[in-house]
């Protein structure tokens, strides 16, 4: 699956005439096959929670960034508003898996999703992990009423 996604991404880069400005590399997020200080930006969307060691993955991203480089992490989160959180968790735990099963035919994928999201670090804890990886000037912005959060930081 990752190989196909990378091919689509490479075609998009070519179609938008971004060769030489953007690149995609397939590799282990805990040991990126990239030289130190090779990139201006490192980003991950909806995947850091699936890393065996998110702190180590962030340290790797820090390693490959040039000084002044920027990190962006987009990840699902649990809304903080108690009323919205209650409604959302009912949807997330019971309704979404039924819809996912009907659409994809795979009941496991959507059960896995809510378990990984609910067991991921709270925002303040993950913020500290990002900072411990060496990032500064960290900005944390909840999106969609807290269903997702974006973490942006800089490599000094």
Q: What would you note in describing this structure?
A:
With 156 residues, the protein is α+β, with helices and mostly antiparallel strands. The protein has a domain at 30-77 and 120-154: Vaccinia Virus protein VP39 (Rossmann fold, 3-Layer(aba) Sandwich), CATH 3.40.50.150. It is 46% helix and 22% strand. It contains 5 helices and 4 strands, in the order H-E-H-E-H-H-H-E-E. Strands 1-2-4-3 form a 4-stranded mixed β-sheet. Strand 3 and strand 4 form a beta hairpin.
Features:
156 residues; 4-stranded mixed β-sheet; alpha+beta; Rossmann fold
Describe how the helices and strands are arranged:
Layout: H1 2-15, E1 39-45, H2 54-64, E2 65-76, H3 82-104, H4 107-119, H5 123-132, E3 136-143, E4 148-154
Parallel strand pairs: 1-2
Antiparallel strand pairs: 2-4, 3-4
Structural class based on helices, strands and sheet pairing? alpha+beta
What is the overall silhouette?
globular
**How many strand segments?**
4
**CATH level-3 fold name of one domain:** Rossmann fold
The CATH class of one domain is Alpha Beta
Q: What is the C-alpha radius of gyration, as a whole number of Å?
A: 17 Å
Individual helix count: 5
Range of helix content:
40-55%
Q: SSE string, helix = H, strand = E?
A: HEHEHHHEE
What percentage of the residues does DSSP assign to strands (E)? 15-25%
